[in-house]
Amino acid sequence: MLSEQNLKGIYVPVVTPFQTNHTLDLASFESYLKHLLVHDIDGLVINGTTGECPTTNWEEVTSQVEIAKIVMKQLNKRVPIVIGTGTNDTLSSVKRTERAGELGADAVLVVTPYYNKPTDKGVVEHFRKISEAGVPVIAYEIPGRTGIRLSVDAIREILELPQVIGLKDSSGGVELVSELSRHGSKPVLCGEDLLFHASLSQGASGGMLASANLNTSKFIDVYNRYISGEVSESKKQFDELVPLIRLLFQEEPNPAPLKWILSELGWIESDSVRLPLLPISDPLKEEIRKHI
Ligand SMILES: O=C(O)C1=N[C@H](C(=O)O)C[C@H](O)C1
């Protein structure tokens, strides 16, 4: 199980590969994981935004977790598994969290409830109920996707819940991580890929980064160099990653660009995404080709 003591380093949110008819492609998932798990990453995230959680069902999540366990066994490697279980319905999130626990999740990733615009107090209660399911919780603040921005006080209250082990911060800046770490906080993982290095310098303990599916060893190097005090070399390495990170997020929505690259690399069979997402445009493909 993950805990606040070991929530650090590079966590990679994985894509959910689909066949061209949009059904789950478990063969691709298996071969993709075999490529990814060559690297010494600190955790895998299944059913995050990158895993297209708005359009997957629980059966599909279960199959992916089972495949991940099989691949890890084959590779004789145990990497913590984080499962995305957060929805905007507290009861459903609790049930998913309990099921994730039964599947052997090391932690769950729970996004701030989106769309129904609860108050800070309601969101704290949402996390309290989910945390009572007995599985370590990583709270996930991403106002750009959820439509609400929590106050720092509400985030502190959530982080004080005993089963909440840390925060994934995609708040859009480094003010939050800076404010939390200034007063001593449970670990904060950066979830805003372009801000990874800046977040480390403000006290983040690592990153949960879709872009780390590519150039994985370089992301690990950025992190390792940073924590061993080689700050400027770490920044230099990170700067080299920036152009591709921009292309993964700024033109068309994650994970469509990433899936296209993974399919070009032959790691997954198809770049298929489920509606309302669409495969990326030809101009973006041309642009990305210059960087891979
Ligand atoms: O799947 C995730 O978890 C992530 N999602 C973010 C997003 O798509 O907004 C990006 C981050 O790299 C990880």
UniProtKB/TrEMBL annotation:
<feature type="site" description="Part of a proton relay during catalysis">
    <location>
        <position position="115"/>
    </location>
</feature>
<keyword id="KW-0456">Lyase</keyword>
<comment type="pathway">
    <text>Amino-acid biosynthesis; L-lysine biosynthesis via DAP pathway; (S)-tetrahydrodipicolinate from L-aspartate: step 3/4.</text>
</comment>
<comment type="similarity">
    <text>Belongs to the DapA family.</text>
</comment>
<keyword id="KW-0220">Diaminopimelate biosynthesis</keyword>
<keyword id="KW-0963">Cytoplasm</keyword>
<dbReference type="InterPro" id="IPR002220">
    <property type="entry name" value="DapA-like"/>
</dbReference>
<dbReference type="GO" id="GO:0008840">
    <property type="term" value="F:4-hydroxy-tetrahydrodipicolinate synthase activity"/>
</dbReference>
<dbReference type="InterPro" id="IPR013785">
    <property type="entry name" value="Aldolase_TIM"/>
</dbReference>
<dbReference type="InterPro" id="IPR005263">
    <property type="entry name" value="DapA"/>
</dbReference>
<feature type="site" description="Part of a proton relay during catalysis">
    <location>
        <position position="49"/>
    </location>
</feature>
<comment type="function">
    <text>Catalyzes the condensation of (S)-aspartate-beta-semialdehyde [(S)-ASA] and pyruvate to 4-hydroxy-tetrahydrodipicolinate (HTPA).</text>
</comment>
<feature type="active site" description="Schiff-base intermediate with substrate">
    <location>
        <position position="168"/>
    </location>
</feature>
<keyword id="KW-0457">Lysine biosynthesis</keyword>
<feature type="active site" description="Proton donor/acceptor">
    <location>
        <position position="140"/>
    </location>
</feature>
<keyword id="KW-0704">Schiff base</keyword>
<dbReference type="Pfam" id="PF00701">
    <property type="entry name" value="DHDPS"/>
</dbReference>
<comment type="subunit">
    <text>Homotetramer; dimer of dimers.</text>
</comment>
<feature type="binding site">
    <location>
        <position position="50"/>
    </location>
    <ligand>
        <name>pyruvate</name>
    </ligand>
</feature>
<keyword id="KW-0028">Amino-acid biosynthesis</keyword>
<protein>
    <recommendedName>
        <fullName>4-hydroxy-tetrahydrodipicolinate synthase</fullName>
        <ecNumber>4.3.3.7</ecNumber>
    </recommendedName>
</protein>
